[in-house]
C-alpha cells in the first residue's frame, strides 16, 4: 500500500497525463492561420486535418491500447506512449512538409489514445470508493480547464512562430522520468499473465454499450460550442476574436467546476439522476443559445449547458469502473476513449446536414435542446426499469 506522499505523486502523474491529452488539438489551434500561410500551396482541407487527425487516430486505436494494457501491463505501455507523444508532437517544430506533419500528428494521436486509456484505467486500479469518485471529478475538471489554458499558451507561442506551439508537446518526454519513478504496476495486473488462462471475465455488454453511447453523445453536444458558436455569434454582427474566445471558454469553465465538484454531490445523487439532470441543464442551455440574439445571453446559455455536460465524463467513468472487472478495465476504457473522441470527431459532421434540414444553425441549437429533453426522459425511464439497480449506485 503506497504512502500518502507516494499516492499524491501518483495522482499528479495521472492528472498531468490526462491533461496532456487535451493538448493534442488545443495547442496548435491558434497556429492554424500561420500554418496555412506557410503551406499556402496546399488545399485548406489538409491544413485542417493537422488539427483533427489526432482525434480520428484516438478513435481508431484506443481499443487496441486497452487490450495491450491488459495483456502486457499498464506502466510499460504508458511510458512508451509518453515518449512517442513528446517526440512525435515536438517534431512539428522541425518538419517542413505537410505530409510529414500529418504523419507525425497521426502518430501522436496513437500515443494520446494510449495515454488517456491507460491513465483512466490506472485510476480504477489505484483508487477506490469516494476517493476514486473525487479524483475522477478532479481529472475531468483539469482536462476541461486545460483546454482553456493550452489554447492561450498556444496563442502566445504562435505569435512568435507557427512552429512555437509544437514545443509544448515535449512535456511528454519531461513527464517520463517522473512517471517511471512514481507509478507502479497494479498487483493484480502484474499477475495477470499467470492467470490469463482462467475462465473469461464477464462484461455487462448492455450497460457498457449504454455508457459508451452516453459519453459519445455528451462529447458531440459539448463540441457544438467550440465548433459552431463562433459562426452563430458572427451571424449577429461583427465580433472580435477575443469576444468569441471568452464565449467558447464559458462552457469549458462551468464544465470544469461541475467536474471538480463531482465527488461532493455524487454521494447524494445516483448515476441515473445525474444523467437526467445533466441532459435537462444541457437542453436548457441550448434553448437559450438558439432563441437569443444577445451576446450576453449566448454566453449564459453556453454556461448552463456546460453545467449539465460537465458531469458526464466523471459520471460515466465512475459507472464503468463500478461495473467492470479489473482484468478487463484496459479494454473497456480503451473502447470508452474511442467512442468519447468519436463524439468530438463526428460533431461537425452531424451538424452539417442538420443545418440544411433545419434551415439555420439557430434551429440546430433548438433541435439539440429538444434532443436533450428526450434523452433526459429516456434516462429517467431506464432508471426506473432496466437500470433500476444503477439508480442506487
TrEMBL record:
**Carries keyword Kinase?**
no
Alphabetically ordered keywords of this record = Cell membrane, Membrane, Transmembrane, Transmembrane helix
What's a single GO MF annotation on this record?
transmembrane transporter activity
**Mind telling me which InterPro entries this protein's record contains?**
MFS, MFS_dom, MFS_Efflux_Transporters, MFS_trans_sf
Q: Where in the cell is it found?
A: Cell membrane
SUPFAM superfamilies (alphabetical): MFS general substrate transporter
Q: Which Gene3D superfamilies match?
A: MFS general substrate transporter like domains
Domain Major facilitator superfamily (MFS) profile, residue spans: 10-387
A single cellular component GO annotation: plasma membrane
Chief localization: membrane
User: What is the recorded membrane topology of this protein?
Assistant: Multi-pass membrane protein
Q: Where are the transmembrane segments?
A: 12-33, 45-65, 77-95, 101-123, 135-154, 166-183, 209-227, 239-261, 268-289, 295-320, 332-358, 364-387
Keyword Transmembrane helix among record annotations: yes
Question: What name goes with this protein?
Answer: Putative MFS family arabinose efflux permease
What lineage is this protein's organism placed in?
Bacteria, Pseudomonadati, Pseudomonadota, Gammaproteobacteria, Oceanospirillales
